[in-house]
């Protein structure tokens, strides 16, 4: 009986110790952003591998999501004779919800998993240890530039996703289904508010960028340095990122509505 | 202790465990300046752990590790990183950064820690590469190197910042006889030419006995022998004898601890 209580206590202590370590590492990484300003080359290199190389999947997905929205939206709106509002429906769905969320999910799968595997393998092959012994802190040299690159890239990728999606919706709605081009754009201009909708989406994608990149970087840095450990950490990155992004999306929507 | 001032590293009463197993149970080691000190012992006795403790990557439970008279486990992170610039470490795997060429790997510590112009970095890198005989391999990537070459590149990188001490983690393991000979020669000549202090962790007896000035033998968390290579060969201690002559059974048993063989075989029925 007492063993059982002791076990609960032990688990709780271990949980909070882990949480504390994670927060400390996060703060350390954030502090390492400051000296990074002097070395923009490191950040640019990471933005290339984290952001630029994710562009293809983001643009293609955005295009298809936009086309689907155009098709579905039109079929529903036409029953009420409101197909002129298609532009608003497409733009609002993308800018407020689908842009940030789908981009974050794709980002976790494309860039997050790559980051975890990269850092995990660096750990498994003693490269991180090697850096430490060369008096180079891996938190400053490896984690910080990657996290910063992710935070910069995510909102930009989400913006691209939304822009391409709106264009996809336009192609289906206007060119294919015959919605009036003028109403598509003018209704969108009239109903999408910069402070309410666009900023809302940018805040979301920024938060998702921090969370998804941090999970990826943290899982890689703390993984068990074996092939199995790296593979598990990579899976965890994708699963945790997806869950946290979707959960936070609800929270952020509720807060900002 | 009269020769304290000659010791670059002084370890006292070091305790360390991993999970439930006790790796070090109160060991004392002195590493004299300018000498090659070998730390030997069977696999799994925590030789690599000892190097990580000296490098400050792990913290001991108890005991002190003085480097230049300063206690490494008590150091703050920033201080520790400063001290590490005076140490070079050669990892078993080489630990080269796989996304850079050989040249950039050796230039890496120089670029990180100095503001030297690129021309000077180039000269320094070429000098280090010449010392390990791989100046011609500067444009290769680490994946194109053989194991022996990777270790030599790692050695060139370890001496890039002109450290006072180099820690070698199993430098001879898995090397063909030629690379082995090259490494043995390099470690000794670097030590003397650059006035380094070298610490070699190894279980390759002949190679290590050939270049070490003094040897510590570790077993089951204790120092079981200490002396010059000659003294080790002459020793009548059963521990040292078993290790130096590679006998299968002795104070270090052949069998991993288990219940009696007979009981084990019968209990399956």
Task: Kindly describe this structure.
With 257 residues, chain A is mostly helical. In chain A, helix 5 (86-124) packs antiparallel against helix 7. The radius of gyration of chain A is 22 Å and the shape is elongated. The model of chain A has no long low-confidence stretch (mean pLDDT 93). Chain A has one domain. Chain A starts with a helix and ends with a helix. Chain A is built from ten helices and no strands. Chain B is 37% helix and 24% strand. The longest helix of chain B is centred in the last third of the chain and has 17 residues, at 177-193. In chain B, strand 4 and strand 5 form a beta hairpin. In chain B, helix 3 (102-113) packs across helix 4, helix 3 runs parallel beside helix 5 (147-158) and helix 6 packs parallel to helix 7 (205-211). Chain B has a six-stranded mixed β-sheet with strand order 6-7-8-3-9-10, with helices on both faces. Chain B is of the alpha/beta class and 269 residues long. Chain B is globular, with a radius of gyration of 20 Å. Chain B is built from ten helices and ten strands. At the A-B interface, helix 6 of A face helix 2, strand 6 and helix 3 of B.
């Amino acid at each position: 009986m007492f063993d059982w209580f002791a076990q609960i206590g032990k688990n709780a202590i271990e949980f909070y110790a882990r949480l504390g370590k994670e927060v400390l590492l996060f703060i350390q990484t954030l502090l390492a952003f400051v000296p990074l300003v002097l070395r923009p080359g490191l950040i640019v290199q990471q933005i290339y591998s984290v952001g630029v190389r994710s562009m293809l999947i983001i643009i293609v997905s955005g295009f298809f999501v936009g086309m689907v929205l155009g098709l579905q939206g039109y079929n529903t709106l036409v029953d009420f004779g409101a197909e002129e509002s298609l532009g608003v429906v497409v733009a609002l769905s993308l800018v407020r919800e689908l842009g940030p969320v789908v981009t974050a999910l794709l980002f976790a799968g494309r860039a997050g998993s790559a980051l975890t595997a990269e850092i995990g393998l660096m750990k498994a092959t003693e490269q991180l240890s090697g850096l430490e012994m060369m008096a180079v802190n891996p938190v400053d040299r490896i984690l910080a530039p990657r996290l910063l690159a992710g935070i910069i890239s995510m909102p930009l990728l989400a913006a691209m996703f939304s822009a391409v999606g709106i264009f996809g919706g336009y192609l289906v709605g206007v060119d294919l289904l015959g919605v009036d081009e003028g109403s598509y754009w003018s209704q969108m201009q009239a109903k999408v508010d910069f402070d309410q909708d666009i900023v809302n989406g940018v805040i979301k994608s920024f938060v998702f960028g921090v969370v998804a990149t941090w999970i990826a970087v943290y899982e890689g840095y703390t993984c068990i340095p074996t092939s199995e450990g790296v593979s598990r950490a990579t899976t965890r990155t994708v699963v945790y990122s997806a869950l946290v992004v979707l959960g936070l999306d609800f929270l952020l929507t509720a807060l900002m509505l | 202790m009269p020769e304290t001032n000659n010791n670059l590293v002084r370890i006292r009463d070091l305790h360390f465990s991993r999970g439930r197993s006790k790796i070090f149970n109160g060991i004392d080691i002195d590493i004299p300046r300018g000498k090659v000190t070998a730390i030997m012992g069977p696999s799994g006795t925590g030789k690599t752990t000892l190097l990580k403790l000296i490098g400050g990557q792990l913290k001991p439970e108890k005991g002190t590790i003085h480097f230049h008279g300063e206690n490494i486990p008590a150091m703050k992170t920033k201080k520790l990183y400063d001290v590490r610039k005076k140490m070079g470490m050669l990892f078993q795997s080489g630990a080269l950064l796989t996304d850079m060429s050989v040249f950039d790997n050796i230039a890496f510590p120089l670029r990180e820690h100095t503001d030297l112009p690129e021309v000077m970095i180039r000269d320094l890198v070429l000098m280090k590469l010449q010392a390990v005989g791989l100046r011609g391999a500067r444009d290769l990537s680490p994946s194109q190197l053989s194991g022996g070459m990777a270790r030599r590149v790692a050695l060139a990188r370890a001496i890039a910042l002109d450290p006072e001490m180099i820690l070698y983690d199993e430098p001879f393991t898995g090397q063909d006889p030629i690379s082995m000979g090259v490494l043995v020669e390099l470690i000794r000549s670097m030590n003397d030419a650059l006035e380094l202090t070298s610490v070699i962790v190894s279980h390759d007896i002949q190679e290590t006995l050939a270049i070490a000035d003094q040897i510590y033998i570790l077993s089951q968390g204790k120092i079981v022998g200490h002396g010059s290579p000659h003294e080790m060969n002459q020793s009548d201690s059963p521990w040292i004898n078993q290790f130096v002559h590679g006998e299968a059974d002795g104070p270090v048993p052949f069998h991993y601890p288990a219940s009696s063989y007979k009981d084990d075989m019968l209990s399956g029925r």
